[in-house]
Design brief:
Number of domains of chain A: 3
CATH topology of the largest domain in chain A: Aldehyde Oxidoreductase, domain 4
Number of domains of chain B: 1
CATH superfamily of the largest domain in chain A: Aldehyde oxidase/xanthine dehydrogenase, molybdopterin binding domain
Strand order of the largest sheet of chain A: 4-6-2-13-10-11-12
Shape of chain A: globular
Distance between the termini of chain B: 35 Å
CATH class of the largest domain in chain A: Alpha Beta
Low-confidence stretches of chain B: none
Number of helices of chain B: 6
Helix content of chain A: 25-40%
Strand content of chain A: 15-25%
CATH superfamily of chain B: START domain
Low-confidence stretches of chain A: none
Structural class of chain B: alpha+beta
Helix content of chain B: 25-40%
CATH architecture of the largest domain in chain A: 2-Layer Sandwich
Distance between the termini of chain A: 48 Å
Number of strands of chain B: 7
Oligomer: heterodimer
Mean pLDDT of chain A: 96
Largest sheet of chain A: 7 strands, mixed
Radius of gyration of chain A: 27 Å
Radius of gyration of chain B: 17 Å
Mean pLDDT of chain B: 90
Largest interface: A-B, 20 and 16 residues
CATH topology of chain B: Alpha-D-Glucose-1,6-Bisphosphate, Chain A, domain 4
Shape of chain B: globular
Amino acid sequence: MATEETDHEDGVQSIDPDDVDTEDILGSAIERREDPALVSGEAEYTDDIQKPEMTHMAMVRSQYAHAEIEEVDTSAAEEMDGVVAVYTADDLDVPGNLPVGWLLDSLEQVNHPILAGDRVRYQGDAVAIVVAEERYQAHDAADAVDVEYERLDAVAHPGEALDDDAPVIHEEAGSNQAFDWEIGDQEATKQAFEEAETTVSLDLHNQLLIPNAIEPRATVADYHPRTDELELDMTSQNPHVHRLLMSGVIDHPEHKLSIRAPEVGGGFGSKIHHYADEALTALAAKDLERPVKWTATRTETYITDAQGRGHETTGEMALDEDGNITGLRVHTKANMGAYLSTFAPSIPTYLYATLLSGQYEIPTIYCTVEGAFTNVPPVDAYRGAGRPEASYVVERLVRQAAREVDMDPAEFRRQNFVPGDAFPYETPVAMAYDSGDYQKTLDRAKEMLNYEEFRERQEQAREDGRYLGVGLSAYIEACGIAPSELVGELGAQAGLWESSVVRFQPSGTVTVYVGTSGHGQGHDTTYAQIVADKLGVDYDDIEVEEGDTDEIPQGMGTYGSRSAAVGGGAIVESAEKVIEKGRKIAAHQLEADPEDVEFENGEYQVAGAPDRSVTIQDVAGASYLAHDIPDDMEPGLEATSFFDPENFVFPFGMHAAIVEVDPDTGEIEFEEYVAVDDVGNQINPKIVEGQIHGGIAQGIGQALYESAEYDDNAQLTTGSMQDYAVPKSSHIPEIKTASTVTESPHNPLGVKGVGEAGTIAAPQAVVNAVVDALEPFDVDHIDMPLTNERVWRAINENGGEH
Amino acid sequence: MEFNGTATIEDASTEEVWLALSDPYMIKEALPGCAFIVEIEGDEEIEEAAERAPEEDPETLPEAEPEEIAERAFVEGSRYAARMQISVGSVKPKFDTMVTIDDREFPEMNASAEGESSNSSFEMSSGMELVETENDVDVEWWAEADVFGRVAQMGQRVINPVAKRVVGRFFDEIEAQLQEVSEESSGGLRSRISGLF
């Protein structure tokens, strides 16, 4: 498949959509249509919603990470001003157990009650809820609920949790092992290591991260007793999935439950999962027959939002005498937190170990993963979800291997890449890469960095006592998770198709309904671009609707960079069905055979007779008038599709950082950051650029600043933004981007997904750069985040001299 | 978390410092944010003991009679109820605290404490030993504490400076009171105190 190159070193320029012709709109960097409402405050978020008679809910959460609940005394809280109701686990008469949506053979499925009754297993566990007239009254009364605990020993780290003497968190599971899973060929890999000329090994800690969506999670629930309809507005990345799961958890029929995601201020995965909070809000509204609002405080999100990463890994690479990779062996202990969150078991298994081949031809790979219950919040998908962890392991080992065999890391990569003519490429870990050209992204990145010149500069600088380093990250990801049959075989308890409706109004405008649920990605813009291109209808005449179970047939939501690849595919299929129906109506009107009617730029035309034509808008009008359409045809012009793609898509690229490290202080300064990404065809290059930038910012956040830290009692010690460093703009360097375009054959748009690429690529680019800079100090590895102190200690552990 | 330090009480004898640090009312006076310290009788709850807290505290050194202080001094094995408000960053929990005097033998004392507020709690063991120097007394103290809940989440970063501030103010206050003892020559207070031992 051909690869094209585009250069955006100075940034992509936005274009006013009015300046773009409909036939050029797909692929144009038009301004996002959602931004005026978002930046002016007109957009409505869940917490903006006000309803008559609305009450407010607050949670009584555990102050211990692990404890038996001896007694809950709600009497003082119940007497406080404005308090409407206080509920504990004893007051619930619904199943109230949060399900896990991805199973593994060895998985211990433990109970996950929505209110803790006899034991709390992390600080976010709620023991009681308080509903009051005003928000402050609810919070004050929550403080007045008296809970007596018997504190138990707690454990925060997976390695410690799997020790024999660790406190057992779920007695029904017998130990803290949530699962024990493997992939690849153990024997062949063992043999590869026995026969290797050289092997390298690294112990890597991929720290826990807090997702930090700008809008905290929130729910407004409203119940109509006469119709039994229960309506929820909530911060959701997938309203239909939430509806299905919640229907079981609170025992309310799915068709009487509607869930709407108003504007949602980011998620990064944290708003995929079904949490106890939204179920409790719904139950309270049902019981009180009054609307109930719950909005997490920022400190609540820090102890309840599902966290990301949390791996302790030993990775080993085997090499032959020519510097070819001959085997990879990985053992990972993955932190699952206190309970299994919605898709948690898939993250450190199928979304992680299947990417361990990276961009390389590796003859044999073997990986084992032990999931561990701990007393931290449940760990689930966070931007990248498994793939950053995999890319980190591969790229750190590759850097170490190149050093060991004394090769330049760029050339070591080039030698081991999957060759451009080998696609589709089957890895030893069950993936079939769709398409790629890894040499090209490497070449482009080297060119942008002036790589050869940099190496000379680096040499020179070392002589002057300055330490510069370059770090490369050749990443690959699998996204647009599909098809349903495959994910079903892997343990998913859901299909991963997407649905859409493309509907003409009689006047010729179009509304598109899609089952994805954007929360900042710019879907209103990009989906409208797709439809404008397909139907030849003016961009301004197209409206996009997402995130409402009452309006959209079904949907699986937005995560795993799936919206363009799977949602976009569903839109294209519906648009094509609409065009085909329209063709029959046009043929009928033009008195021609449908096979002779061509459709282009919004117009049906009889082949060879340009004056015999009709616009699709006129066809739409005729279809609803229904006075003169083919006899066997239903009126109206709309189509529904469920698109289930053939496979994942595999974006890839090369990110690289140049840094300078001050050995006296451990400070790291960026000189350069370049990102060459191949995300397939680009619907809107400005939005692609924004996703790459944001992703890199979060990746650099992980590399240098962010870490959810727990003390010996599994108490979160980085419990606010004063202690947990979300990077500010001044922490992020100027980013130079460029892209190559290798179309994916797995969806009609040839797109690959871009939502997670930067987050997957950036951490190891930075760590590799720092390690490269510190080569004279014999520093092999520093665990993230690379704080000044850690860097300084790593330098000084080896005497600080070279 | 572990803390330790040495506080020097100038111009005082070991006996004077020991007596001052054995007096629940002196401790209450000197400890910032402490509302009361009352000995717990039998199995009673902290709230029940709290009801016995005097509205007005009896006199402490230098006004109080040393013999009276010795009478009410901490007793090994006894438990005390205390209420302490402490401000840690943006959190100002009020801890209902149970203090147990684990060991007490001149010049060493060890105590443990458990405090609870609506959203936070702590568990602490601590100890001190008095060491007499030429004119002064060094109080060598240590504490090991675990904090839970909101204080742990919001305040661990500032717990060290907060602890330093509280301990510093506490010993400054003790020193100021004992200063007055050393200035009080009439009545031979100093000799009466040393006579107690």
